């Protein structure tokens, strides 16, 4: 039995691979009806912070993992010390949860990162002036999907600083945002996925994920090397999403580490020999890793919720008329605007054609709420 | 909500695709713990023959389908007449369930089939002598996986005739057994999969399924045409497995029709653009079909149970060390000798290498019972 803390779409896709390999699934999630609930053998309803519920999950599971980072690390550390296998290790989670500690750890490991300093809440403005604008503020804890980040372009914008313990990072002129998934097993063997490229829209929301990234081979190799270095520095077991910047001057810099399957790795389900989810399940259960080779180029986009209420999928029939289109609807019980309700992967031997189809299908398929 | 009668491995793999597309799953199965039970939103425990339970399933489902042929057709016909969508139509099931009617229907449709005659229980011997040996007896009802079939080579073997209403078929000298999966949607659009080849061992148990079949292109096209003709003759909606013989004199003849996902189509999960299971779900829910193109050659074998008791999977770790190996364990609660407990698909750009790896992995991976 594999115990998963968090019952969202990442857990759902993990569970599907785990079931294929014959494993049972137990899940802890606060929602009565979560995407993975219909696939779980055992459902425990409770908060990700509830130590007792996490212990209940551990007792019925052979191994614990998670699909979300904001969970009770203390209890997981206790469990790990008591001998319960928890992958990736809660020690990694502790590092990742605090962006300052994450960057300090990476700096120590020799990973190229943007310049940064620590700036506690009571000294934010002084530190910002000292560090110099333009800069990017990242709150140490709690940020995700662009939350907890402020961009300060000039000293006039210093009043936009978020009033919380933070780190301040140099503002990098970005050519492209790229990412690499890395899997590492319990013996330290590694499988690296190709470099992918994230294309954002004006509102800084991911528009398309393009695999492979349209970058030079040398830069791709450099990004893969950095991603491996990150996971090795963390002594990570499982799958990791490593987000990086390719700066305008051609440097690759680490942006952020996700110690779990990642949105930028969804394309692996259809486009790679082994999906990020199967790879994760293999790693945490002590099985050897699969081949991470890209079989066919792919473009992925998220299907974001529109409106509120119970979800209704529109355009499925029209969308599926295009060849190479794979629709994943997560089965979340309610819609909220911009909530990730599903994703679509388009594969095509010709990456340009995949992108063309993805652009068309993105305008067609919608998940809208029934509450007007 | 998709209602599935039968909760075995075929239903499990259907359910996984259905969930991906965002559909709910209800299942009727006599076992408390069936492979699909952990994935279903609603589980009804009852016999496949229990009309009331089938009606209960229909009431909570938007469409009914099945993963097994020996079910209560009468109730399904009533439901269809009352306007409940049932795919494939129970009328097809009625034809398929009786091998004599199946062959008569195919003959009428102009599908090439082995010569056959009807032989009722009380006239078996006379009919067999009249028809001439060697011959193959097939019982009209209840046969599967080689059961309900007797091969009579000489008149001396006439005492081996199974004492039940049957059809007698000419004994075809077989070069290869081949199969084609065909999907047909509610508008009559068709997607045909490549021809695959079934390699049997001495005990007449499927050893390996080889995709694509190692046959001439002309013969492959002929087999695909026959498969399409069969499904059109049945006015089928859903996925169909069409088993055929390639005789020693180069003729392609229909052997048997399965109105559901089929063992010989498991390779499509990893090797084709759209799996047989996704194709079935698309067809029965009114969605357009996907592309059935083969992306990479594949070899599949069934993992058959050894012994009795609760299943234990052996050799998984060693098996997964080989590249391109996909293991599917069905999650059946108990093992029986020769019971299908899972399957393995091996993909490789070089079909010969896929076969080599499959042969190795087949010796490694086992599902054994814990009851000595």
From TrEMBL, chains A, B:
Signal peptide per UniProt: none
Taxonomy of the source species: Archaea, Methanobacteriati, Methanobacteriota, Thermococci, Thermococcales
Biological role stated in the UniProt entry: Catalyzes the ATP-dependent conversion of 5-aminoimidazole ribonucleotide (AIR) and HCO(3)(-) to N5-carboxyaminoimidazole ribonucleotide (N5-CAIR).
GO biological process: 'de novo' IMP biosynthetic process
Family to which this protein belongs: Belongs to the PurK/PurT family.
Organism: Thermococcus sibiricus (strain DSM 12597 / MM 739)
EC number: 6.3.4.18
SUPFAM superfamilies recorded: Glutathione synthetase ATP-binding domain-like, PreATP-grasp domain, Rudiment single hybrid motif
Reactions this protein catalyses: 5-amino-1-(5-phospho-beta-D-ribosyl)imidazole + hydrogencarbonate + ATP = 5-carboxyamino-1-(5-phospho-D-ribosyl)imidazole + ADP + phosphate + 2 H(+)
Keywords: ATP-binding, Decarboxylase, Ligase, Lyase, Magnesium, Nucleotide-binding, Purine biosynthesis
Domain ATP-grasp: 103-285
Quaternary organization: Homodimer.
GO MF entries: 5-(carboxyamino)imidazole ribonucleotide synthase activity; ATP binding; metal ion binding; phosphoribosylaminoimidazole carboxylase activity
Superkingdom in the source lineage: Archaea
Protein known as: N5-carboxyaminoimidazole ribonucleotide synthase
């Amino acid at each position: 039995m594999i115990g998963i803390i968090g019952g969202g779409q990442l857990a759902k896709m993990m569970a599907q691979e785990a079931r294929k390999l014959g494993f049972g699934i137990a899940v802890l999630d606060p929602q009565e009806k979560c995407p993975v609930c219909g696939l779980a053998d055992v459902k425990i309803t409770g908060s990700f912070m509830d130590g007792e519920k996490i212990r209940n999950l551990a007792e019925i599971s052979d191994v614990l993992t998670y699909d979300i980072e904001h969970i009770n690390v203390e209890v997981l550390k206790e469990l790990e010390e008591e001998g319960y296998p928890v992958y990736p290790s809660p020690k990694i989670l502790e590092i990742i949860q605090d962006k300052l500690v994450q960057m300090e750890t990476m700096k120590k490991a020799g990973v190229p990162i943007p310049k940064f300093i620590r700036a506690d809440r009571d000294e934010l403005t002084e530190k910002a002036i000292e560090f110099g604008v333009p800069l990017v503020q990242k709150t140490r804890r709690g940020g995700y999907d662009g939350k907890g980040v402020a961009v300060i372009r000039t000293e006039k914008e210093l009043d936009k600083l978020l009033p919380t313990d933070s780190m301040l990072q140099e503002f990098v002129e970005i050519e492209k945002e790229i990412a690499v998934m890395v899997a590492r097993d319990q013996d330290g063997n590694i499988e690296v996925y190709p470099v992918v490229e994230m294309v954002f829209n004006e509102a800084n929301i991911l528009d398309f994920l393009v695999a492979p990234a349209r970058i030079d081979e040398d830069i791709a190799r450099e990004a893969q090397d950095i991603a491996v270095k990150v996971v090795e520095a963390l002594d990570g077991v499982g799958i990791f999403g490593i987000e990086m910047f390719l700066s305008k001057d051609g440097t690759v810099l680490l942006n952020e580490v996700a110690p779990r399957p990642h949105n930028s790795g969804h394309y692996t389900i259809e486009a790679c020999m082994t999906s990020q989810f199967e790879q994760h399940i293999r790693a945490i259960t002590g099985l050897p890793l699969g081949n991470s080779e890209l079989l066919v180029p792919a473009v992925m986009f998220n299907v974001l919720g529109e409106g509120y209420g119970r979800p209704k999928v529109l355009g499925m029939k029209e969308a599926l008329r295009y060849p190479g289109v794979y629709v994943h609807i997560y089965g979340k019980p309610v819609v909220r605007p911009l909530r990730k309700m599903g994703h679509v992967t388009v594969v095509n031997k010709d990456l340009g054609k995949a992108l063309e189809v993805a652009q068309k299908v993105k305008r067609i398929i919608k998940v809208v709420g029934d509450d007007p």
